[in-house]
Write a structure and sequence with these properties.
Layout: H1 2-11, E1 20-24, H2 29-45, E2 48-55, H3 61-77, E3 80-85, H4 94-112, E4 116-118, H5 123-136, E5 149-150, E6 153-154, H6 162-171, H7 188-200, H8 207-231, E7 235-236, E8 239-241, H9 242-246, H10 250-263, H11 270-282, E9 290-295, E10 298-302, E11 306-311, E12 320-322, E13 326-330, E14 333-339, E15 354-357, E16 365-368, E17 375-376, E18 385-386, H12 387-393, E19 406-409, E20 412-416, E21 420-421, E22 433-439
Helix pairs in contact: 2-6, 5-7, 5-8, 10-11
């Protein structure tokens, strides 16, 4: 067992001097065995070990006693120990416990600036997880079982059975905690462990190996599917090209929507995926676009050009006065107006967020987002039009309209950044100024 864990650390470049490794330590058989092995390996590789313990506070004095046993073990082994206790009013459900446990793990990683946090999930946990997912309903992705890595959280014991763990604890004279709630078959995982898997073993005594083999095959199938999707060149960053999406089979379209749910960690069911796909197919030719709610802060967006996930953002209501050449901060953007020193060989595209203009009056502008009643005289036109109509003609997605930064004078729009220029500041005789917009630390939408 120690050799398997050591190999895992080496493969993941964690057996490094001065590396900080935290271990999720409940004090049970699995986590005590893992912590003991990691502590021994720390002497060899000179990395730092921290044991982090979350007291779920479900069983009162018994939980407190387990916490003290964990602390005592760490003192004996000279391992740094950190613990937190949950509010007893928290819901006593497996789902809520998992949410809080992983929040604690990630908080601990941040607290100690850890390179990794190890959890003691075993081959047996993978079997239980797969059976649970099958009962609840899952796809190929769900059949992959427990991932060996999730961010900075690593699981080095997925190739180790619970029998091996118990044998290791016996050979090394370890005295783990025994959680009495493990006998409570009210919890689904316990029922699977205590009742279902023993029944499966009547058919196949090596059922855990068989289920783990299934997980490996599912992983390979998932990789093949993703490689095929990547070969289709459907994406521009996180957006799917709508016209390419239209040409796909229904099943592949459905798979792409499912991938969005997985990527952004949204709760999903087959019914939700199919509902979203129906919405997309109904609105796939919309010029300005339509949105479909995922949760309170996220939506699927579709228009004639692309499909993507968007999130809510507060509209920037600031109004910045522009009264001289220079650089101006507007939210996450920097607007620059400077004198033109060289006539360009060709004018930039609107999408480059740069414009060469002719300004024949004092610089007296404002920078803001749109308001009701805004008008613009489009380039090449002799008449004004409403900004709303202008944006529709430009096929600007509806969710972007309130984010567009506008250069204005006396209530009239002179530059719609990223989309177009007013005829009133076009270059007729000579180029006097250059306008640019840059996003701090990134690219523009």
């Amino acid at each position: 067992m120690k050799d398997k864990i050591e190999k895992f650390l080496l493969d993941n470049r964690l057996a490094v001097k001065d590396c900080v490794i935290a271990v999720g330590f409940s004090g049970g058989f699995d986590s005590m065995a893992l912590l003991n092995v990691i502590n021994e390996l720390s002497d060899k590789y000179k990395f730092k070990v921290i044991a982090v313990h979350l007291n779920h506070n479900w069983r009162g004095k018994e939980s407190l006693k387990e916490q003290e046993n964990c602390k005592s073990f760490c003192l004996k082994k000279n391992i740094e120990f950190y613990t937190e206790t949950l509010d007893k009013c928290e819901k006593h459900t497996e789902t809520r416990a998992r949410e809080l446990r992983y929040k604690f793990f990630n908080d601990s990683i941040a607290k100690y600036n850890a390179n990794a946090l190890l959890t003691a999930h075993t081959k047996s946990d993978t079997s239980e997880t797969l059976i649970y997912r099958i009962i609840k309903g899952t796809g190929i992705r769900g059949l992959q079982g427990i991932s060996p890595k999730l961010g900075k959280i690593y699981r080095p014991m997925l190739d180790i059975s619970r029998v091996e763990v118990e044998q290791y604890c016996k050979e090394n004279n370890l005295n783990p905690n025994f959680d009495s709630s493990n006998k409570n078959n009210h919890y689904a995982r316990n029922f699977i462990r205590n009742e279902i898997i023993p029944l499966f073993k009547n058919i196949n005594n090596k059922v855990e190996n068989a289920i783990n083999s299934l997980a490996g095959l599912a992983f390979e199938e998932e990789q093949l599917i993703n490689e095929y999707i990547a070969s289709l060149n459907l994406f521009n960053e996180d957006k799917i090209y709508t016209q390419k999406f239209k040409e796909l089979s229904y099943l592949l379209q459905k798979r792409l929507i499912y991938n969005f749910y997985v990527k952004y960690d949204f709760e999903y069911t087959q019914e939700r995926v199919e509902t979203v796909l129906k919405f997309i197919l109904e609105n796939i030719n919309s010029k300005s676009g339509k949105t479909c709610s995922i949760d309170s802060e996220h939506w699927f967006f579709v228009n004639i050009d692309y499909i993507c996930v968007i999130c809510s953002q507060e509209k920037n209501e600031n109004i910045i006065s522009i009264n001289s050449e220079g650089r101006y901060l507007f939210g996450d953007y920097i607007f620059t107006i400077e004198k033109c020193s060289k006539i360009p060989d060709s004018f930039p595209k609107d999408s480059e967020y740069k414009a060469f203009v002719e300004i024949n009056s004092n610089i007296d502008f404002t920078l803001r987002t749109r308001k009701n009643g805004d008008v613009i005289r489009p380039l090449g036109c002799s008449y004004d039009t409403k900004l709303k109509k202008y944006l529709i003609n430009k096929s600007v997605p509806c969710y972007l309209k309130d984010k567009i930064i506008l250069l204005c004078k006396d209530g009239e729009i002179l530059w719609v950044s990223g989309y177009g220029l007013s005829d009133k500041i076009k270059v007729v005789k000579r180029c006097t100024h250059v306008l640019t917009l840059e996003k701090i630390g990134g690219t523009l939408c």
